Amino acid sequence: MSLWKERFGVPPADQVVAFTESLSFDVRLAGDDLAGSRAHVRGLERAGILTPDEREALLGALDQVGDELEGGRFTFVKGDEDVHTAIERRVIEVAGDVGAKLHAGRSRNDQVATALRLYAKRELQALTRSIVAVQTVLADRAEEAGDAYLPGYTHLQRAQPVLLAHHLLAHCWALARDVDRLVATVDRLDVSPLGAGALAGSSLDLDPDAVAADLGFASRFENSLDAVSDRDFVAEALFDLALLGVHLSRLGEELALWSTEEFGFVHLHDTFATGSSMLPQKKNPDVAELLRGKTGRLVGHLTGMLTTLKGLPLSYNRDLQEDKEPLFDAIDQVGRGVAALEGLLATVGFDLDRMRVAADSQEAAAVDLAEWLVARGTPFRQAHGIVASIVRDSLERHVPLPELVEGHPDLGSEAVALLEPGVAVTRRTTPGGAGPKPVADQLRNLRRRLEIDGERVGRG
Ligand code: ARG
User: Is residue 460 one of the residues assigned to a domain?
Assistant: First the structure.
């Protein structure tokens, strides 16, 4: 049965159904569609369209349909082109004539937008909570790392030693921005479109404010045309998830790199690593690689959605049905990735000796020598030149750096102490810097931020 069978007198061709159906993917909106329908039923009663008995009959039928769907006892039939059609069809079967009153004053256009907003709101909130959980693991690992340090890199070349805690917290702050963005996206999407009808509202005495409140939305739509056309929330969510994906990818790339024999900074726990079907000795960082690899499709979903939306005239167009699969897939993939990352980070072993040895090259303290000179009055450019030529000399003539520093008229034995292992990192004292003092402050600030964000996203 199609919803417009009396208009055409014939069902759509099989190819049309195959091409235009969305049931295969929007079935996951069943619970949200039922919630929207329950609120609509209560609204119809308030509007005097349904008697209290009819309201009860419809709510009872919706409950039964919900049970059938949940229990896997719901039978879809030919003509159920989407989950909304299927549910209405079944409500009519269950409730008889009164079932036919369900769709008064409503269109699938406002119905679909309502269900998708309810879905996005709930799922994005849950995802945001799981990001905070990953941040908490990162903060715990940072705290546990204490004063351990490793080389900090620019251009993937060793630059200056930094605390391991500082490095881990850098990723944490990026995730804090993701949380912030998702919270803002949820705030903006928290608007009910129900009552917009097909595009223009209704002649029935419906109250979209009351329905919005019933559904837990913060407000209702202001403009019915906008309400059924607006998929900004999908595009925004896809951007948030794509950028989050980029952050996860960056972290995944580092873990993959750090787990190589060449770096050897981390050992993946066996439960978060994979083996090779052919090479018995292999231990592969597949989780880290997929955190990196999945990001391609996230960026693709965002690009695809924006391209679909571009150039659509007001108001609803069937193109909008293309909003669902990218959103569902992005939420699924990122949700699973974040959960896997939490375990990966909680179990990864840090080889602090390898990190320290890699960071203790004397050249890594070069800027400290230059700043030591600056503190004694030498202009920085000149100090940079002095140290650069000593480093070059050391490398070219294979003379140990301390020897050249010791013998240099502007430097001498006091400056040699800067080259001692572990000294350079302690000299990063400015706020937000990589040394022990500012990192302790930073960790406190981050913990406070996690407290606040934990409240914002709910403990769920
Ligand atoms: N499955 C459709 C969607 O997701 C339902 C809306 C259909 N509306 C219509 N006027 N054909 O957008």
Answer: no
Ligand 1 mean position, distance from CA 69 (Å): 21
User: Which positions ≥6 away from 357 have C-beta within 8 Å?
Assistant: none
The count of structural domains within the chain is 3
How confident is the model over 8-27, as pLDDT tens digits?
A: 889 899 999 999 999 999 99
Boundary (domain end) residue, out of 337, 357, 377 = 357
DSSP H or E segment with residue 118:
helix 108-145
pTM of structure: 0.95
User: What does the mean pLDDT of the chain come to?
Assistant: 96
The residue-averaged pLDDT of 37-48 equals 98
Catalytic residue among 155, 203, 277, 398: 155
442 and 349 assigned to the same domain: no
Q: Are strands 191-192 and 219-220 parallel, antiparallel or unpaired?
A: parallel
The catalytically annotated residue of 219, 276, 389, 413 is 276
Same domain, 301 and 445: no
* Residue 200 forms part of a structural domain: yes
Dist. CA 349 → ligand 1 center (Å): 50
pLDDT score, position 275: 85
Mutate to test the pocket of ligand 1, among 318, 319, 328 (most ligand atoms within 8 A of CB): 318
Q: Is residue 459 part of a domain?
A: no
Tens of pLDDT along 88-103? 999 999 999 999 999 9
Same domain for 233 and 335, yes or no, is yes
Final residue in a domain of this structure, among 104, 119, 139? 104
DSSP one-letter string for 366-433: HHHHHHHHHHTT--HHHHHHHHHHHHHHHHHHT--HHHHHHH-TTS-HHHHGGGSTTHHHHT--STT-
- What residue numbers bound the domain in which 67 lies? 5-104
Task: Name the residue with the closest Cα to ligand 1, atom 5.
Answer: 108
Asked if 332 contacts 127 with a C-beta cutoff of 8 angstroms, the reply is no
155 is catalytic: yes
CB 442 within 8 A of CB 435: no
Indicate if 141 and 285 belong to the same structural domain: yes
Catalytic (active site) residue 219: no
